Hints:
Blueprint: H1 75-83, E1 105-106, H2 111-119, H3 121-136, H4 150-168, H5 182-199, H6 210-218, E2 228-229, H7 231-246, H8 255-276, E3 280-281, H9 296-304, H10 319-325, H11 330-341, H12 346-349, H13 351-356, H14 362-378, H15 381-384, E4 388-389
Parallel strand pairs: 2-3
Antiparallel strand pairs: 1-4
GO molecular function: peptidyl-prolyl cis-trans isomerase activity; protein tyrosine phosphatase activator activity
Family: Belongs to the PTPA-type PPIase family.
Keywords: Cytoplasm, Isomerase, Rotamase
Amino acid sequence: MEEPPHHHHHHHDHDYDHQHSPLKSPSSTSTTTAATCCNCGAPTSYKPPPAWSDTSPPPIYRPIRAPAINLPPSSHTQQAIILAPVPHSQKVPLVSPPYHFQTPAKKIQSPEDINHFQNSDSGKNFLGFVVALSESIRSHKLSDPCHQSETINSIVSILETLIQWIDEIPPAQQSSRYGNLSYRTWHSRLTETSDSLMLQFLPADLQSATIEIVPYFADSFGNSSRIDYGTGHETNFAAWLYCLARLGVIKEEDYHAVVARVFTKYLELMRKLQLVYFMEPAGSHGVWGLDDYHFLPFVFGSSQLIDHRYMKPKSIHNDDILENFSKEYMYLACIAFVKKVKKGLFAEHSPLLDDISGVPTWNKVNSGLLKMYKVEVLEKVPIMQHFLFGWLIKWE
């Protein structure tokens, strides 16, 4: 496949100011808002790439992971990340009978709604759950033994079934490079089977919960009409796990396995879906985002590496380390995958990940990424307008 043409908006290669990493301390953040080249200070212009219109189909060749929007992160967002408190873990409150399961619905339409959610018990507790998952894998290799309940094994086998379906539904022959239509066949099999998949592990007294938890599950693997996937879908998977924790189906002692067994299997499934069906990145920030598809494996993966004897954030530039350790460490697997699917210099296609590699400790990386997840994912209307609220995740 030939190389995509490179569009340089400015004659310098490094438009991204390395002082702008949201994970660095406030003192190093420049206050200028105009986009300027960090080498010479000349103004740079960031024009978004031409939109692919619905009327004229895209050309046969589209570079993998065409960025949707390609704007440098705003200094306002970066300040918000830097100044935000580090999120803390929280215990998930269990529900008790009588149960009032309901079909969950969308509630978020504006920044005010986002604030309402962030300040609510549900919003704080959901983020607290994500932090608790992150802490459960702290300083652990993926192969470390962990408590694996029947429920966990059952969920892993469900994900293995979904992986198996991909082999049974080969990609369709089609002229457009992106969005293979066979994904829709895979997705309709998912929606037809979701209820019965839940019943494989829900105890008898909780089977009525399917009405509420299936919508989160069904939205965890991408959108069937757009054939895209992004951090909103990933957040649905975390929300589905959170609902299971609210039900007591997943317990605190399961968290380590939720990350090391369930989430890693989910990642394996998503990477296969992305590669086989050429899923579009949903609302990708192009070069300015962390990654086109995922966020949480960077959070969990940085936690795994906290206090590692010799692996430092800058070790991601060492290909021997990536090759030898990406099976054990999720963060390294993410970096290796990015390097596999993106061509060119790492600092150019992934400036944010490159910046993060300059942060001195994994602890700082992890807390910075947790703050960033809250600001860049959970506080973004385009992502959270699709988020669902029911009896387990309440809209108060």
